[in-house]
Amino acid sequence: MDKDELKELIEFMNENNLCELEIEQEGKRIKLKKYSSETSFITPQLPSQPSVPGKDADTPPEESNLIEIKSPIVGTFYRAPSPGAKPYVDVGDKINPGDVVCIIEAMKLMNEIKSDVHGKIVKILVENGEAVEYGQPLFQVEPL
Questions:
Q1: pLDDT mean values, one per 10 residues, the chain (144 residues)
Q2: Please, what sign has the CA dihedral across residues 8, 11, 17, 20?
Q3: Quick one: 97 exposed, middle or buried, by C-beta within 10 A (0-12, 13-18, 19+)?
Q4: What is the per-residue pLDDT for 18?
Q5: Computed from CA positions of residues 135, 140, 142, 144, in that sequence, does the dihedral angle turn out positive or negative?
Q6: DSSP letter at 63?
Q7: DSSP structure class, residue 12
Q8: From edge to edge, which strands make up the β-sheet containing 119-124?
Q9: pLDDT value for 15
């Protein structure tokens, strides 16, 4: 791939507001990622209700302790790499930074969404195949 082709890909990413692009061509793969100081994929969630005294041990932790993994792009949310395959994560699974938690399809491109935090999946906020918006919470994670 020459410089001109690379510049075209970068322009394509900018024009379509993409954060990540991966292309495989003639046995070679190129993956472009764009990071911005304005973009935060994981942000702490503010408590929505005061805690209730006397909670069971099986109830989820206080919401103020949870971290949300948010969608970095607009697209379609998929929990697994293909139909019928095992989901990347389920409620109760422990995750580490760099672990793939889902895929978001945007313009026929499959974008792996990775965790930036050590934690345990407490809640999956989106249904498989559902459209998601930029910044929409996908998962709630209890930090470990």
A1: 78 77 75 58 44 47 79 94 92 94 92 94 95 94 92
A2: positive
A3: exposed
A4: 76
A5: negative
A6: G
A7: H
A8: 42-44, 67-70, 137-143, 119-124, 94-95
A9: 78
Domains of the chain: 1-37 (no CATH), 40-45+63-144 (2.40.50.100)
Map 64-133 to HEC letters. Answer: HHCEEEECCCCEEEECCCCCCCCCCCCCCCEECCCCEEEEEEECCEEEEEECCCCEEEEEECCCCCCEEC
CA distance 80 to 102: 6
131: how many CB neighbours lie within 10 A of its CB? 12
**Parallel, antiparallel or unpaired: strands 75-78 and 131-132:** antiparallel
3-state secondary structure of 11: helix
What gap in Å lies between CA 46 and CA 133, rounded to an integer?
20
- Structure tokens given for 3: 């410089």
pTM, to two decimals = 0.56
pLDDT of residue 25: 72
Residues counted in the chain: 144
pLDDT of residue 14: 77
